[in-house]
Specification:
Layout: H1 3-18, H2 23-33, H3 37-42, H4 45-48, H5 51-55, E1 60-69, E2 75-86, E3 92-98, H6 104-121, E4 126-132, H7 141-155, E5 164-167, H8 174-188, H9 209-227, E6 236-240, H10 244-255, E7 259-265, E8 268-271, H11 278-287, H12 293-298, E9 303-305, E10 317-320, H13 329-337, E11 342-344, H14 353-362, E12 365-367, H15 369-372, H16 375-389, H17 395-419, H18 426-445
Length: 448
């Protein structure tokens, strides 16, 4: 093993020793640093100053108790997290996830990914992430409000427009953001709308923010197809998930002429060969907050499946938009066998290492989440711009900015990979460019 590869392996082993049991964090670190050998050969001073070692260690990790009362006046206890991973390029920026699976390792993996994602956008924002093991499903609005107020009662002292700017993620939408900001405003006696993003457009939020992550993943896929001399027109697509990211990925795919034939939730998936009825899907998921099985009950052309995998359905374009590690090696092999050409990750790290290898070996173009789903955080940065200038932009102008940002991200990843002799490898291109941007800022600041 060459000297640089040995050094990278030693760094990874150190990460495992210092963060035992945090498997998702280990996976995220390995996926990035194992692509960095070409960068270290070209820029040996990064190794001399131990930039990789420093990037792999969060700048701060905050864990706190969140007590609240349910509607039966029973006291409940949850755990809250906020990890500020890297602020070399700007204030920490990243969402809050409310889901029972949330552990410190989950937040660290997300914060690590966010650091590179934010760097790739070219916006002046660092990387962070937060959340809680609180599950909003099945809770009343009053319970969610009380939880959010308790959560922010501790979090408020650690965030600020120039320090750390949270946003939404799984389990945290406009409702939760409203309750969180209301408590922040109440405690601080200040209307700092730029302290949190994902707000309603009625009180400081950006138009397109709700749609941005899903739209962005599609815009990136569109650029990947252009690089192959193709377009989205007429292509069958499969989109996992049926939350915010998936719904608006489906919307943009349909607007650009593609046909989405399947989507899913945690209980199963629907297959609708004629194409998903978006109005019905939105009504079920956004208005009724019901299970996806209701779709097949109301549209007899669609079938609902609780067994098997959504990735067994034939498609040219796959967008995993649900959660981490949802698409494994076997699923990737099925997609390849059924003619899939492009995979654009709408979720964070949805493809396992085995899936990534299978796609690479088969020549399937894979856009990693840190590039393909960067539209959400990019539009959050645009929301911060509007808040700072006390301005509000139109939907059309904001979407145009988003599309240009995604085009720039695609071109940056493509040309960086090409520069290092890895043309078409978007995973490597994203990792190398994100790392270089953060590394240069860290070097400029000295050892801090």
């Amino acid at each position: 093993m060459a000297e640089i590869e040995t050094r990278i392996h030693q760094i990874y082993e150190q990460v495992i020793r210092r963060n035992p049991g945090e498997l998702e964090f280990h996976q995220a670190v390995k996926e990035v640093i194992e692509t960095l050998a070409p960068v270290l050969r070209k820029h040996p001073h990064y190794a001399e100053h131990k930039i990789i070692e420093r990037i792999c260690e969060p700048e701060r990790q905050i864990i706190f108790r969140v007590p609240w009362q349910d509607d039966n006046n029973q006291v409940q206890i949850n755990r809250g997290f906020r990890v500020g991973f890297n602020s070399a390029l700007g204030p920490y920026k990243g969402g809050l996830r409310f889901h029972p699976s949330v552990l410190l390792g989950t937040i660290k993996f997300l914060g690590f990914e966010q650091t590179f994602k934010n760097a790739i956008t070219g916006m002046p924002i660092g990387g962070g992430k937060g959340g809680s093991d609180f599950d909003p499903k099945g809770k009343s609005d009053s319970e969610i409000m009380r939880f959010c107020q308790s959560f922010m009662t501790e979090l408020y002292r650690h965030i600020g427009e120039m320090t750390d700017v949270p946003a939404g993620d799984i389990g945290v939408g406009a409702r939760e953001i409203g309750y969180l900001f209301g408590q922040y405003k109440r405690i601080t006696n200040r209307y700092e709308s730029g302290v949190i993003t994902g707000k309603s457009p009625h009180w400081g939020g950006a138009l397109v923010r709700k749609e941005a992550t899903g739209y962005g993943a599609v815009f990136f896929a569109q650029e990947m197809l252009k690089a192959k001399g193709e377009s989205l027109e007429g292509k069958d697509c499969v989109v996992s998930g049926s939350g915010n990211v998936a719904i608006y990925a489906i919307e943009k795919l349909q607007q650009l002429g593609a046909r989405v034939v399947a989507c899913s939730d945690s209980a199963g998936f629907i297959h609708h060969p004629q194409g998903i009825n978006l109005d019905l899907l939105k009504d079920i998921k956004e208005n009724r907050r019901a299970r996806l099985s209701e779709y097949a009950k109301e549209n007899k052309e669609a079938s609902y499946h609780t067994e098997g995998s959504i990735w067994s359905i034939g498609c040219k374009l796959a967008l995993p938009c649900a959660t981490q590690n949802e698409l494994n090696g076997d699923a990737a092999i099925q997609l390849i066998a059924n003619g899939c050409q492009v995979v654009s990750e709408g979720a964070n790290m949805p493809c396992t290492p085995e899936a990534i290898k299978a796609f690479s070996d088969a020549g399937v173009a894979l856009a990693p989440g840190k590039a393909a789903n960067a539209g959400g955080v990019a539009t959050s940065a645009l929301e911060m711009q509007q808040n700072a200038s006390r301005d509000a932009w139109s939907f059309e102008y904001t979407e145009e900015r988003l599309q240009q940002i995604m085009r720039n991200i695609h071109d940056t990843c493509y040309h960086t990979a090409e520069e290092y002799g890895m043309k078409g490898n978007y995973v490597a291109g994203a990792n190398m460019m994100g790392f270089q941007r953060v590394a240069e800022a860290m070097l400029a600041f000295g050892v801090i």
